[in-house]
Design goal:
The chain is α/β, with parallel strands linked by helices and 212 residues long. It folds into two domains: 116 residues, no CATH class; 58 residues, Wheat Germ Agglutinin (Isolectin 2), domain 1, CATH 3.30.60. Helix 3 crosses helix 6. The structure holds zinc ion. Zinc ion binds next to helix 4. It comes from Dietzia aurantiaca.
Length: 212
């Protein structure tokens, strides 16, 4: 795969940072590089966990990723292109972007995929289910006020004008039709996408997103 896998002892010693919304820890004692940004472990960005087969499994909180690395359960595949340092009680550690399990684990396929805004927008290609304009909202086809469920089969990406015009009406009352039937996506990648709030550095190499 051409990816670097590093020793955990080395991992413990490395320090780094990442710019952006993360807040530095003002009283940090260690002295990483001048570019390093220190954050609390809870505020550190999530880490993509790969199976031993390099299949993407989930996005871990940084704390869990660090525990797995120190415990020898996983190795670093990609560092952050910019550096993030977190402080634990005794030491500074560098947060990677992608890690990989040393041992393959079997994951069940059958679990239902939770619906999130990001996953729904991806299913509908960010297009309004009524007029095909760019969607910025989510509409309940049968309004919640009239008993509609909050789920894959009753939610659709919608442009703001359509959402506003539709309000709490039924499609039959408006004479509208959906451009396509609403189905729940299946498959592990979908499950993962539905969990992700953002895509970290290098993650796309492991997220093979098929069209809905
Ligand atoms: Zn529309």
């Amino acid at each position: 795969m051409g990816t670097a896998v590093r020793e955990n002892s080395e991992y413990r010693q490395r320090v780094s940072r990442r710019p952006g919304r993360l807040e530095p820890v003002p009283d940090a004692r260690s002295e990483p590089s001048a570019r390093a940004r220190q954050v609390t472990l809870a505020a550190a960005p999530r880490v993509l966990l790969l199976n031993a087969s390099y299949e993407a499994l989930t996005a871990l909180p940084a704390r869990r990723a660090v525990v797995m690395l120190i415990g020898g359960k996983a190795d670093v595949v990609h560092d952050h292109p910019t550096e993030v340092v977190v402080r634990s009680v005794e030491t500074s550690v560098k947060v990677p972007s992608v890690i990989r399990l040393r041992e393959y684990v079997r994951i069940p396929y059958h679990a239902q995929i939770p619906m999130t805004r990001a996953a729904l927008m991806h299913r509908d290609s960010h297009r309004c289910g009524y007029c095909n304009a760019r969607a910025t909202t989510i509409d309940h086809v049968i309004p919640r006020s009239r008993g509609g469920a909050h789920g894959w089969e009753n939610c659709v990406a919608s442009c703001a004008p359509c959402n506003h015009r539709k309000a709490d009406k039924l499609l039959s009352e408006l004479g509208w039709e959906l451009r396509a039937p609403l189905v729940a996506p299946r498959g592990r990648t979908w499950r993962l996408v539905s969990q992700l709030r953002e895509i970290g550095p290098h993650w796309e190499d492991y997220l093979y997103l098929d069209a809905a």
